[in-house]
């Protein structure tokens, strides 16, 4: 009995269906549930689970369209997970190189470990109908479904970017590359590139990120030269711009607000090791531990504070900062290509809530900045309400705040720089630099 149970537990398609069910039906993030599904598998199977899960999440509207055409009625709650198993089968048949026989038979076999043996015939019939009717070639005449985005987000992007929405939507469906940031405290970028050359690891560089390297092929990051020694960190190219835009100087006090997981904190310390003090704060104790782990691996030191950015009176010591990086809580719509579960966990109503929270935080943190100091506002969002409109509103209501025109066409009515997904291989990101008079 135990061997049968073990065999069932190791069924990859059943595990993938459970993860999809937890994300789409129970509202769990992939960061919460995917590692649990992967823990009993080898590295190859772990990668397969992520690839298939993320693939279904990217193509979900189309897979749901096919499901509605081929499934007579929705399945009941106790076997609802089987719908996700069927969509996994659709994804394999339409978008992967697996054989049709394997896709069908393995999905049918996955019914048992999902406690849905009675649905074996249904799963077999639906998948074989998918093949027989050549459904993979039957695409609906509906741009929203083909975009892979939920209706609410599709409409917001269409409104915000009427002339650019198609390439933006396309870029959001493409798997994001792996960016490294070389720890200048340990190695120069040129030195680390030579190590990659010696290991026959293909990469490219971008002028805008002097410490950045883009890997041209996926790999296990922990096997790269110098991982344990802290010679590099994984950080997208857009996020790598934060430390240089903050432009910290020797003997300054720096606050990295909402700092987890600490990539930007470490980069600030690498670019200017002679700052007087770097404080990294975050509201989540567990995420604060991740900052500490990253600081330790990379060989940096910072003061860590657990606190609510919207209520600094509870944690601030009263001494103002020369520069503040405010990486505000946001919709994360700019990193959907990297975390496709985001678009199914967010709702349209969340945006208004986030905009209100962002405004509360920036108003609360502004008094912590010295006169003459600089605040860099950042999000990984591509929605104007969280970015340009947020900063324009802040400038209008804040007498001692001024826009530091760092970017081309930087203006009060359209402040900051909006990086779109895929631009120079970067994630979607927004920056605005503000000066305190």
TrEMBL record:
Cellular-component GO terms for this entry: cytosol
Residues that bind S-adenosyl-L-methionine: 258-264, 282, 308, 327
Catalytic activity: cytidine(967) in 16S rRNA + S-adenosyl-L-methionine = 5-methylcytidine(967) in 16S rRNA + S-adenosyl-L-homocysteine + H(+)
InterPro entries registered for this protein in UniProt: MeTrfase_RsmB-F_NOP2_cat (IPR049560), MeTrfase_RsmB-F_NOP2_dom (IPR001678), NusB-like_sf (IPR035926), NusB_RsmB_TIM44 (IPR006027), RCMT (IPR023267), rRNA_ssu_MeTfrase_B (IPR004573), RsmB-like_ferredoxin (IPR054728), RsmB/NOL1/NOP2-like_CS (IPR018314)
Single annotated GO MF: rRNA (cytosine-C5-)-methyltransferase activity
Subcellular location: Cytoplasm
Claim: Nucleus is one of the keywords in the record: no
GO biological process, one term: rRNA base methylation
Gene3D superfamilies to which the protein is assigned, alphabetical: NusB-like (1.10.940.10), Sun protein, domain 3 (3.30.70.1170), Vaccinia Virus protein VP39 (3.40.50.150)
Chief localisation class: cytoplasm
Residues annotated as domain SAM-dependent MTase RsmB/NOP-type: 168-437
Active site: 380 (nucleophile)
UniProt keyword terms in alphabetical order: Cytoplasm, Methyltransferase, RNA-binding, rRNA processing, S-adenosyl-L-methionine, Transferase
Enzyme Commission number(s) of this protein: 2.1.1.176
Record-linked Pfam families: Methyltr_RsmB-F, NusB, RsmF-B_ferredox
Membership in a protein family: Belongs to the class I-like SAM-binding methyltransferase superfamily. RsmB/NOP family.
Function: Specifically methylates the cytosine at position 967 (m5C967) of 16S rRNA.
Protein name: 16S rRNA (cytosine(967)-C(5))-methyltransferase
Annotated organism of origin: Paraglaciecola mesophila
